[in-house]
Each structure stands twice: as C-alpha cells, then as structure tokens.
Design a protein that fits this description.
By secondary structure, the chain is an alpha+beta fold. It has nine helices and eleven strands. Strands 1-3-8-5-6 form a five-stranded mixed beta sheet.
C-alpha cells in the first residue's frame, strides 16, 4: 500500500481550508495519506467510511470525524453525500501541545457533536454566501470551534507509541514543508538530503519506510496541488501553469494529473470554469 503526504493550503481569506468533500457524488475512494494539519469531516447527508491507522469508523448524518496530524487515513464514499471538510494548520494549536509539536484529539465522546455540527454548517453557509463581513463571522465561529476542540476533545494522556509514530512522520513533514516552499525549483533527492543532513540513500529509505512513497511522487503531489489551483482559478495557458509549478514539461504534468484526476487538465478546467 502506498501512502501519500497531502499538502494543505488554507483558503486565501481565512486561516484554514474549508470546502465540500470531493467525494460528494459517491463511488469514491481516497487512498491512504497523511498530513500535518488537523482535519474535520462533518457529514450532513449520506454516509462515509474512514480507516484511521487501520481502525474502521462509519460516519452517519449528524456526525463528524476528527483526523489528527500524522494519522494515516483513507476514506470510502459509497453514495452521494453532503460533507463539509475543514483542514486546520497544526500550528493553530501550538499553545496546547501536549508534547513537542504534538496534540491529539479523540472522538470517543459525542456530547458536543450537535454544537460542532451547527457551527460547521453555519460557517460553510456564511462562507459560501459571502455577505458583508463574512470573514469576521466565520473566523469568530472558527475560534469557538477551536475552544471546543481543546476543551472537550484534546487528550492529554496519549500512548507513547502514538507519539513515536507521529514523530516519524513529523520529520518527513518538515522535509515536505521545505519542498512545499521550494516546489518551483529543481529539487533533487541529493540536494534535499544534504540540506537536512542525511545521505540520499537514507532519505530515500525514510520516505519508503514511513510514508510508503518516494520523494519524487511526493514532490509531484505538491506541484500538482498548486497547478490544480491555477487551472481552477486563473486563465493562464496550461503550458504556463506547467512551468510556473515546477514540472519539467507538459508531458510529465499531464501524466501525473491524469493519474490523480482521471482526466486531462483542459477537461478539468472546462469543468471548473464552464463559462470562461
């Protein structure tokens, strides 16, 4: 099984990422992946199935799923659903770490589900409609959500094995964060290893052992995340999208894009910009 490291980019106008789940139409599988951000899936209609570190969780309407930083997880969406997703940068919780750069949330207690679901529904509705002052309202609700998370869901007594597993992926997350900042450059495995004080062989082994991927696939994922945003939000020629996001040529970009999205970049742009 190949795990991938997902790069989380906040929305342009709020300090977190909020969107409708990409598996909303059903018949969708998101393979195992991990990221440093805290992720919340709020299910309003339909059903979702999660696998978090091999444990299975079935989600029903009115429930949400918390995914911690560096938890390897996958998602199965068998039917159409309405799901709002929030991805919150880990550093948002730095004052509440229970270990170095570590915080862990449990979802064993559902006492606050109704309040959390109400918050998430209203946040997304306000953000989607964008009335005057929407950023202030959404961010106010966001801080209430954070308060509930750290007071009701934060675990302060966490199994040492969970912490150790998180540390393994956290080191790779620091490396991928550097890749995120420099994705437009020509980043070789050798140069990356030298920057972080490893041999190229050891760094390659780290990616394979802990992330179950390789550095090239990880770099392609980072570049693709930015390129997809350009395709959806700009009218830049596809050739320019390719070059500005670090891909060596259009052929390499199309190969990676089609493998991930099952369509050509121009088809994706037509879908996202039907009237352009």
């Amino acid at each position: 099984m190949v795990y991938s490291h997902e790069i989380i980019l906040p929305n342009d106008d709020i300090p977190f990422k909020m969107f409708i789940f990409e598996g909303k139409d059903g018949n969708y599988v998101r393979k195992k992946h991990w990221h440093r951000s805290i992720e919340i899936f709020a299910l309003f209609e339909g059903e979702l199935e999660f696998y978090v570190d091999e444990a299975r969780y079935s989600l029903r309407p009115g429930e949400f799923m918390l995914v911690n930083s560096n938890e390897i997880h996958s998602i199965f969406s068998p039917k159409r659903n309405q799901t709002v997703v929030l991805q919150i940068p880990l550093t948002t919780f730095e004052k509440y770490y229970t270990d170095e750069k570590f915080i862990y949330f449990s979802h064993s207690s559902r006492l606050q589900d109704e309040e959390v679901m109400h918050l998430l529904r209203d946040m997304y509705h306000t953000y989607h409609e964008k009335p005057c002052g929407y950023e202030l309202k959404v961010q106010g609700q966001f801080y209430m959500l954070l308060y509930i998370l750290v007071t009701k869901y934060r675990e302060t007594d966490v199994n040492e094995k969970v912490i150790q597993n998180s540390r393994k992926l956290d080191r790779l997350s620091q490396i991928t964060a550097y890749m995120e900042e420099n994705y437009r450059e020509d980043i070789s495995l050798e140069s990356l290893a030298e920057i972080f004080g490893y041999s190229a062989t050891y760094l390659s082994r780290m990616f394979r052992k802990y992330a179950k991927t390789n550095y090239k696939a990880c770099l392609d994922d980072i570049r693709l995340e930015h390129a997809v945003k350009d395709l959806a939000d700009t009218r830049l020629p596809i050739g320019e999208v390719v070059l500005r996001n670090g891909f060596p040529n259009s052929r390499a970009f199309v190969k990676v894009f089609k493998k991930r999205y099952g369509m050509l970049p121009k088809e994706y742009r037509r879908m996202m910009q039907p009237f352009s």
